[in-house]
């Protein structure tokens, strides 16, 4: 009772805690890249006895979501309690700085006397704050704390990571039968697809065993009665169209929280129950502070869903997609308990933009081959085609998100409600993701992007208007798009050019102004204008501009230019020498310009035999 009263009072006076004996330990068990493929979530093909038992003792969250469908920006959300499009940390492994007041939340726990450990993945998508941890290594453990010291410990289980299907296990060693896999409707029935799914379920079974070991260790050391335990995954996954994509398959994650009897008063329900409350990773940092009696800093955008600072349930869960490795994209999504809405701002790029890492799974080339051979049905083909501007899915009746209701008049009011929710959130959160990354990376050299957004230099309403018009695919908006091509704001000009790219040949009346933008002072505008003019049949100067961009010291400008050159086909030939220069010396294979340059050169090489014939 003392601890409960203390929490109530401490919320109002700052980060002061009760005596150590009264504070709960917190254990996080984090698996990588898995959707709720667990028996306790109704998956009868899964073999997960330890987590199924754990769910019977804890609270299972039906509607828990990562903010991003990929690890680094998703983990940035977890560690900061802030939305990456606010911080400028949405793009994969970008590491732009965050404001000085944004602290990795274990800082607050350490200051309050907790022993904080991380075993061992960080990948927080910004400049590290190693002082947030007492230990962060493959050997980090709560066992090294002082006697009686409360702990916050994270254990990351990477056995279920995407890479787990890159190296094939002999088929006779698989525990799950490929022939019995229940394929989602968007995946074709290829041997490689079935095999990757079966091997993945084996990895989830091993992940479950490892989670069980951590839970058993807690019991063995007599700590279970003083420890609140979380199990969750860092994003959905792992086969193509899940991880990296803002569907249920990429964003919905398992989340189970177990409270010992001593701390049951901090829980919203009894153990063994299921809740449909909407929860996102934005809420995790404030929730841990709420559970440990630490006042939640006002800058955090998430809301506590457990503990004495628990808030009312939010109406929506928000998510995003930015650049994924070497491929540029931009989507935003809003989810309530029945619908998922997606707004695609780069709709002219197909879903299946070639990614070096994604293509390492044999299921992906097999899907691509089936597409090229014309063996796919309409649902399976969509992954290889351009995106609609808007998507709306009825989750209850369409859990795999394959029937887009955005164009159905019966759902017009629902669509408009989600459009407004999406726009309101982007404005409220000061979303900097609409700044092209080549420019964004330059701005970050002078300080945080969140501070830049607050400075008045970023007219988000004006930029959003341009982005919405540009991505609408509406030829009737061309006059307005052409007018914006000469806007003083380079970000608005960029989005106006995107509008001409989306419209393809219908944008021919903009050609004169696009020609002039090849000399624009902003490199991202020059590159986008080159793509627009390539669509309209010009090759000479646009390719020269793209080739010159490959010599820029701005890596993200190089990535943008390489993305366009790959689409240019044989017309990209004059730029191949500069692309090859990016591979000289000792380039890191993890550098996204290097990956994109390799792909461009390989594609050009594959065309050569056909040209020689």
Automatic annotation (TrEMBL):
Name of this protein: Sulfatase
Signal peptide annotation: none
Gene3D superfamilies with a match to the protein in the record: Alkaline Phosphatase, subunit A, Leucine-rich Repeat Variant
Domain Sulfatase N-terminal: 24-294
PANTHER family: ARYLSULFATASE FAMILY MEMBER (PTHR42693), ENDO-4-O-SULFATASE (PTHR42693:SF53)
Metal-binding listed as a keyword: yes
Keyword terms: Calcium, Hydrolase, Metal-binding
Family the UniProt entry places it in: Belongs to the sulfatase family.
Superkingdom of source: Bacteria
